[in-house]
Write a structure and sequence with these properties.
single chain; about 300 residues; alpha/beta; Rossmann fold; N-(1-d-carboxylethyl)-l-norvaline Dehydrogenase, domain 2; 8-stranded mixed β-sheet; about 50% helix; binds acetoacetyl-coenzyme A; binds nicotinamide-adenine-dinucleotide
Length: about 300
């Protein structure tokens, strides 16, 4: 009995030591702002980090708008409770331009910066020197190797992937990625954190694109190639996939929504890794739009124009 009690208490304390309450999100763009929002809305305290104050101001504005939309639906007949929910969520978020100090007392770092392995490694290497032992590191990468990022740190066992989907406040799925070095405790803590956010986790191996993007990215690239060959207008391809396959958005709408720069980073990385794979071939049109700064909805123009 005493042995049981001792073991029980020990397991409770180890679970508690991994319970994630305070998170630091690095990158306040499309994804980081959404991740910070859902974490704050579910009672976690959040520090959101980006490179400049003006970017963070925009992130907070975006979060405020999005929480407002959610609260209108959630508290349809209770506007006062809705206003309180918005206020409580926003109060849980603070911002910083200094990643080193932001991670000093955090349970989990979720990185959502540019899709470039060197930049991500450099960031994680720096954070590894400032974050406490207990802190788990996770990347929201769409396409890069979690193990490669972890190799820049000394905490291979406390490093995993948390891949959210855009728009984060609405999309229910999170892919939880375990490398061969990620400990079971870390993996479970990440699974539990995902559930605490109200999301549905799926377990993934550390393979390019995990589950969703390994299927989705070749599909959207095929759509661009079909359009480049002149075999359909982008409008017709979008209508066809929405009405014929039941997708909520057509591939060109989705490309603009995800960001053409992010899509290009993904496909360029995979092409470099496997140059003979026709599914990973680059697209001249995608490259041209990115060169012109037409990155999709976030810049006002991509395949389509947005007012
Ligand atoms: N925050 C809060 N609420 C939002 C919101 C946001 N960011 N975006 C939309 N909403 C709300 C709207 O207010 C609206 O609410 P009402 O019903 O009360 O009006 C509701 O959601 C529906 O929105 P819309 O009418 O504007 O549009 P919709 O019905 O088409 O739904 C969508 C929007 C959920 C984005 C849907 O189009 C969709 O599921 N699209 C596909 C998204 C997708 O595939 N995402 C994955 C991309 S890939 C990825 O993320 C991985 C990667 O690594 C690249
Ligand atoms: P984004 O361009 O909207 O935002 C990236 C943010 O990171 C920017 O605000 C930028 O200023 C900031 N940043 C860049 N380098 C930084 C650094 N060193 N320190 C702090 N901040 C830095 O990009 P996004 O679409 O949010 O994508 C972010 C990550 O999430 C990428 O790895 C991407 O592949 C992944 N992702 C994107 C989507 C999507 O649909 N866009 C979906 C899932 C995952």
């Amino acid at each position: 009995m005493a042995f049981f009690t001792h073991r029980f208490l020990r397991s409770m304390s180890s679970t508690n030591s991994l319970a994630i309450k305070h998170i630091t999100v690095i990158g306040g763009g499309l994804m980081g702002a959404g991740i910070a929002q859902v974490a704050a809305a579910t009672g976690h305290s959040v520090i959101l980090v980006d490179q400049a104050e003006d970017i963070l101001k925009k992130s907070l504005k975006k979060i405020g708008d999005s929480v407002g939309r959610i609260s209108k639906k959630k508290f349809i007949d209770k506007p006062e409770a809705g206003a309180e929910f918005v206020q409580q969520t926003l109060q849980k978020i603070s911002t910083s331009t200094d990643p080193a100090s932001a991670v000093r007392n955090t349970d989990l770092v979720v990185e959502a910066i540019v899709e470039n392995v060197n930049v991500k490694q450099e960031l994680f290497k720096k954070l590894d020197q400032c974050a406490p032992e207990k802190t788990i590191f996770a990347s929201n990468t769409s396409s890069l190797s979690i193990g490669e990022m972890a190799s820049a740190t000394t905490r291979l066992d406390r490093f995993g992937g948390l891949h959210f989907f855009n728009p984060v406040p609405l999309m229910k799925l999170v892919e939880v990625i375990q490398t061969p070095e990620t400990s079971q405790q870390t993996f479970e803590a990440l699974m539990n954190f995902t559930k605490a956010l109200g999301k549905k986790p799926v377990a993934c191996k550390d393979t390019p694109g995990f589950i969703v993007n390994r299927l989705l990215v070749p599909y959207i690239m095929e759509a661009i190639r079909l359009y480049e060959r002149g075999h359909g207008s982008k409008e017709d391809i979008d209508v066809a996939m929405k009405l014929g396959a039941g997708y909520p958005m057509g591939p060109f709408e989705l490309l603009d929504y995800v960001g053409l720069d992010t899509s290009k980073f993904i496909i360029d990385g995979w092409h470099k890794m496997d140059p003979d794979n026709p599914l990973f071939a680059p697209s001249a049109l995608l490259n041209k739009l990115v060169d012109e700064g037409k990155l999709g909805k976030k810049t006002g123009e991509g395949f389509y124009k947005y007012s």
